Amino acid sequence: AAMAGVARRLLCRGLSVAAGPPSTRQLREAEEAAPVFQYAGKAARRKDRVFVWGFSYSGALGVPSFVRPDAGWKKPRRIQPTPYRLETDEKISSAACGYGFTLLASNTKDITKVWGMGLNKDSQLGFQRTRRDQTKGYEYVLEPSPIPLPLEKPQQTRVLQVSCGRAHSLVLTDSEGVFTMGNNSYGQCGRKVVEDEIYSGSHLIHQLKEFDSRVVQVVCGQDHSLFRTKKGTVYACGWGADGQTGLGHYNITSVPTKLGGDIAGVNIIQVSSYGDCCLAVSDEGDVFGWGNSEYLQLASVTETTQVNVPRHLPFKIGKVKEAACGGTGNIVLTEEGNVFVWGYGILGKGPNLTESAVPEMIPPSLFGWSDFSPDVRVAHVRCGLSQFAALTNRGELFVWGKNLRGCLGTGRMEDQYFPWRVTVPGEVVDVACGVDHMVSMVRSFT
Amino acid sequence: LNAAPGRAPRQRVRFLPTPAPGGGGALELVAARVPVLADHPLVRGPRFRKLKIGAGHRLDVKASGVFVLGIGHGNKLLTDLYNCHLPKVYIVGGLFGKATDDFSDTGNLVEKTTFDHITREKLDRILAVIQGTNQKALLMYSNIDMKTQEAYELAVKGLIRPMGKSPPIITAVRCLQFALPEFQLEIHCLHETQQYLRKMVHEIGLELKSSAVCTQVRRIRDGVFTVDDALPRTQWNLQSIREAIQNCQLKVETELEKTLG
């Protein structure tokens, strides 16, 4: 009994510790001994992502599960009202939205440089071979599918820019000219119009190389194409009934022809078009316009509703840096960072301003400028058919205009009468606006 | 307060019987102004037996800064100021590398993380996004129909703000100091609580792929009252309080008129 007692006292002394609430020293020691987790190293790079939103049944968003759900409980999603992330294989450097289809292009030297999704009834996405029948092509492409371009040096040429119109698309490369595909019933692909040509399932991709210098920008209007070269000249081809080719006549042009008029001899640094009106910006900050003027787009210089020769628009708003044309409204951005709109439709200054022949400025306070943050400025402006988009230098995207099938991305179905911020989880680098959908290229925050 | 000279007693005209200037026992009524006996200090007693003091927007135990109190008639002004929904400004100090359960540095440790990848640029980008999303919340909770011209006018002037109940909204954020692991933010907010600000610091840490705790919350402005108007502990005496009330009267009146009309 005595031995057991001694053993128990020894055990008590050695192994038991007085319990109680942890003292400050114990807490501090526990804290210092805790493991440190690392979620991002010093070399963590920001990721580039693509976000899409708008009408999805045409396949233009590139998410097949919206159109054909892959699980029983999923329902088809007709409209994606807020930005949705699209997984892409490569970093997308240029995107363009057409009328129900989208093109994504990457700057890579790999063989696959351009992906397309959406409507393909006029082969505007090239020939997409079906799985079942090797001779037929898909009419609706639901996923970003590679477009086979007939490049001479596929592992050296880089794709610089893509552009989409109503039923045709243009791909600009750095050393092999411009590739055009899609509908050519008005010569918008730059090749001779073939009567009764069937465009659906066509393998034909035309290459355009004859310009006075290297082409640096391609723009698609509804049924016409514009090419801007390094020397500052502008070429056009396609439908001209509204004068949108700017060549002095109202006929079809099937070969890219140089424009004259007020832009002859002027160094143009940017061209823009989406509907039937076109705008060009010179290096000195002047704006030139031609094409449809039924909605007062060019009413500041002429009363006629069609202008088939480029005319200088004498606006006294300062040096213009960038211009964008929509279906019925136009928008320009000046060097100071001010945004001006004119034309017809929802222009962005409330429901009362529906049309204007002269540019009206949108107050910068609507884009996040305030006394608290005075260095917020608009960096880029873009136009869809009846929507406008503005990107600020802080990477925020503001949209306004008609909310056709949820294309504004605000999460609501109503039209937006003044600039509204779109919540995108990242810094928006560029945005492409279409008729009923939009695509944005975004960099993550960290 | 009771020692200060009070109101003079009311005067009343009474007809008092006084003996006639002639002789004999005839009494004459002469009008005279006499003080009312009911106003005599010995009858009435001390002027103030208790004071009604009301408190303005809450400030919790771990925070510090401007705390508005109203005395007597000021309580009604306090209610009016509350209905103005003016923004408040806080200085919030944070520390990277730790995450605790109550988001402040005195809580139980949950996790420790590295923070050497955080730069001032990344923090500014996150703050810009916070400001942008809260700007949208501001427009949404103000219950104005976005399709009207007046909504556009107010949005241009920046006067849209929720005039009723709403979740906490941050109208502006700015980074004042950044010295890893510590940083300091100036936050302008509406309808917030200090715990919400601490939670925001924690969320900023999460967005930056690290963790953060809040070390200091100090309110430097509450509507029209700033730190300059506030009285420190050493000046909690009658004279300073009176002066402070007088100095602020004009400001409060102009603000109330401007907002509530």
From TrEMBL, chain A:
GO terms for molecular function: guanyl-nucleotide exchange factor activity; rRNA binding. Residues 46-327 form the RCC1-like domain. It comes from the Eukaryota. One of its GO terms (biological process) is mitochondrial fusion. RCC repeats lie at residues 48-108, 112-175, 176-231, 232-284, 285-336, 337-394, 395-444. One of its GO terms (cellular component) is mitochondrial inner membrane. It is found in: Mitochondrion inner membrane. Keywords: Membrane, Mitochondrion, Mitochondrion inner membrane, Repeat, Transit peptide. Pfam families: RCC1 (PF00415), WD40_RLD (PF25390). Forms a regulatory protein-RNA complex, consisting of RCC1L, NGRN, RPUSD3, RPUSD4, TRUB2, FASTKD2 and 16S mt-rRNA. Interacts with 16S mt-rRNA; this interaction is direct. Interacts with OPA1; this interaction is direct. PANTHER family: RCC1-LIKE G EXCHANGING FACTOR-LIKE PROTEIN. Guanine nucleotide exchange factor (GEF) for mitochondrial dynamin-related GTPase OPA1. Activates OPA1, by exchanging bound GDP for free GTP, and drives OPA1 and MFN1-dependent mitochondrial fusion. Plays an essential role in mitochondrial ribosome biogenesis. As a component of a functional protein-RNA module, consisting of RCC1L, NGRN, RPUSD3, RPUSD4, TRUB2, FASTKD2 and 16S mitochondrial ribosomal RNA (16S mt-rRNA), controls 16S mt-rRNA abundance and is required for intra-mitochondrial translation of core subunits of the oxidative phosphorylation system. This is RCC1-like G exchanging factor-like protein. It comes from Chaetops frenatus (Rufous rock-jumper). The lineage of its organism: Eukaryota, Metazoa, Chordata, Craniata, Vertebrata.
UniProtKB/TrEMBL annotation, chain B:
Pfam families: TruB_N. Signal peptide: none annotated. InterPro entries: PsdUridine_synth_cat_dom_sf (IPR020103), PsdUridine_synth_N (IPR002501), Trub2 (IPR039048). GO terms for molecular function: pseudouridine synthase activity; RNA binding. Residues 49-193 form the Pseudouridine synthase II N-terminal domain. One of its GO terms (biological process) is RNA processing. Belongs to the pseudouridine synthase TruB family. This is TRUB2 synthase.
